[in-house]
Specification:
Structural class: alpha/beta
Strand content: 15-25%
Number of strands: 12
Number of domains: 2
Bound molecules: D-mannonic acid
Helix content: 40-55%
Largest sheet: 6 strands, parallel
Oligomer: single chain
CATH class of the largest domain: Alpha Beta
Order of helices and strands: EHHEHEEEHEHEHEEEEEHHHHHHHHH
Radius of gyration: 20 Å
C-alpha cells in the first residue's frame, strides 16, 4: 500500500516516515511513501543520492536509539514531477496523503494547494489527507483552503481531512548527516478516514474522535515555550534551547510563562498540564540535541498567532496575569527591529520570506 507525502523535510523523515518504518518492521505491514518537496528539488535529490535510506538517531539523557529508515521509496519535486504526482493520484493502492509544509504553507495559492488541486482532479476514489503541521484545527484549515482553491472542481467522492497533532523535536541537520532527534515521539490523529490507512495504532499512534485538547496542550505549552525561548534567548546572546533552560533567569521566566498559560487551558480530565510541563522541561534540557533558537525564531509572524496570541487574548478577556505572554510578543518585535529597514518596506514580503531574509543578513 502507498502513502503520498507533500513537504519533504527532516521533520517528515524523523516522524511520519519513522512511524511507517517501525510499522513495517514490527507489525509486518508494507507501506511505502512517495514524498515530494514543494519549494526546491534538493531534498528529493538527496534521498536518491543515499539510495532512499537514512538513519534517524534519537538521543536523550545518555540513551540513544537508531533506526535505519527506508520507508520513503520514491521522491519528487512539485516543480518538475507533476506527471509522477498524477500517476500516484490515479493509483488505487495510494489511499493516504500526509502534509508537512509548516505554518506559512497554509496560504491561498501556496504550492501545497497546487499539488492537492492536481492530485484531486486526477483522483477518482476516496482519499484521506492528514495535515501534520503546528496549526490548530490543521485539517479543517487545509480543507477550507483546498475547497476555496478548487471551487466547483472539488471532488464529489469522499475526501477527508483528519486533524492531527504531531510532536517530535527535530533540529535542522546538514545533508548527508544522520537526522538527530529526541526519544519522545507523539502523533494523535482524528479518526476520520475515508480510505484504508496504516495500522499506526500498533506503533503507538493515538486515534481519537477529537484532537483539540491535544493540540491546545502542545501548541500553547510546547510551541509557545519554544517561541518564548527563541526570542528571549536570542535577544540575550544565547544560541541553543538547552542553554536558556540551563540559565537560572531563563528557566525562571519560562516557568512564569507556564504559570500564566496553564489556568487558561481548558483540558479534559486525563490531560495533566503540570505533568506535561515537567516533561517538557526535561525534553528541552537535552544538550545532546542542540536545537538552534534561530531555527525556531523563523516565521514568528505566522507562528505567534497559533502559539501565543489566543492565550494572550484569553488572559486579557479574563483579567488574568499575562506579563510573560506579552513579553514573548515584545521580544519577537525587539528581535525584528534589529533587522535592517529593507525588511519593513514590504510587510507581506517579510511574512513570506522571513527565513530567506534572515539568512541573507546572517541572522540564522
Ligand atoms: C518548533 C517546532 O521550530 C519550531 O517552531 O517550535 O518545530 C517544534 O520543535 C515541534 O513542533 C516539536 O514537535
Amino acid at each position: 500500500m502507498k502513502m503520498l507525502h507533500l513537504g519533504l523535510g527532516n521533520f517528515h523523515k524523523a516522524h511520519q516516515a519513522w512511524y511507517v518504518q517501525r510499522l513495517n518492521d514490527l507489525a509486518g505491514e508494507h507501506w511505502e511513501i512517495s514524498a515530494f518537496s514543494m519549494q526546491k528539488p534538493d531534498a528529493a535529490l538527496e534521498l536518491a543520492r543515499t539510495n532512499f535510506s537514512y538513519d534517524v538517531l534519537a538521543v536523550q539523557d545518555g540513551r540513544r536509539e537508531e533506526l535505519r529508515v527506508k520507508s520513503i521509496t520514491q521522491a519528487g519535486f512539485l516543480g518538475s514531477d507533476q506527471e509522477l504526482l498524477r500517476e500516484l493520484a490515479r493509483d488505487q493502492e495510494m489511499t493516504l496523503i500526509t502534509v508537512t509544509v509548516t505554518e506559512k504553507g497554509y496560504a491561498p495559492n501556496a504550492p501545497v494547494l497546487q499539488a492537492l488541486d492536481l492530485i484531486l482532479r486526477e483522483r477518482r476514489t476516496p482519499v484521506s489527507i492528514v495535515s501534520c503541521d503546528n496549526l490548530q484545527a490543521n485539517g479543517k484549515k487545509l480543507e477550507a483552503l483546498v475547497r476555496a482553491h478548487m471551487g466547483a472542481s472539488f471532488p464529489t467522492f469522499p475526501v477527508s481531512f483528519p486533524c492531527s497533532m504531531v510532536d517530535r523535536i527535530v533540529p535542522a541537520s546538514r545533508p548527508g548527516d544522520a537526522i538527530k532527534t529526541e526519544l519522545f515521539c507523539q502523533w494523535v490523529i482524528e479518526d476520520a478516514f475515508v480510505a484504508p490507512r496504516p495500522a499506526f495504532e500498533k506503533v503507538g499512534v493515538l486515534f481519537v474522535p477529537d484532537v483539540t485538547p491535544f493540540e491546545l496542550m502542545k501548541l500553547r505549552l510546547l510551541n509557545a515555550a519554544h517561541s518564548f525561548l527563541a526570542y528571549w534567548g536570542l535577544n540575550r546572546g544565547f544560541e541553543f534551547v538547552h542553554q536558556v533552560i540551563a540559565d537560572n533567569e531563563g528557566r525562571r521566566q519560562l516557568e512564569a510563562l507556564f504559570a500564566e498559560i496553564i489556568p487558561l487551558l481548558d483540558l479534559p480530565t486525563g490531560l495533566d498540564a503540570h505533568a506535561y510541563v515537567q516533561k517538557l522541561l526535561a525534553r528541552f534540557n537535552n544538550p545532546d540535541l542542540p536545537h538552534r533558537l534561530a531555527q525556531i525564531a523563523c516565521d514568528g509572524s505566522v507562528k505567534l498567532p497559533q502559539r501565543i496570541v489566543p492565550t494572550l487574548l484569553a488572559a486579557l478577556a479574563q483579567g488574568r496575569p499575562h506579563v510573560l505572554l506579552e513579553q514573548t510578543v515584545t521580544e519577537w518585535t525587539r528581535g525584528m527591529v534589529q533587522l535592517p529597514d529593507e525588511l519593513f518596506s514590504d510587510p507581506l514580503r517579510m511574512v513570506k520570506d522571513e527565513a530567506e531574509l534572515r539568512r541573507r543578513i546572517g541572522v540564522s
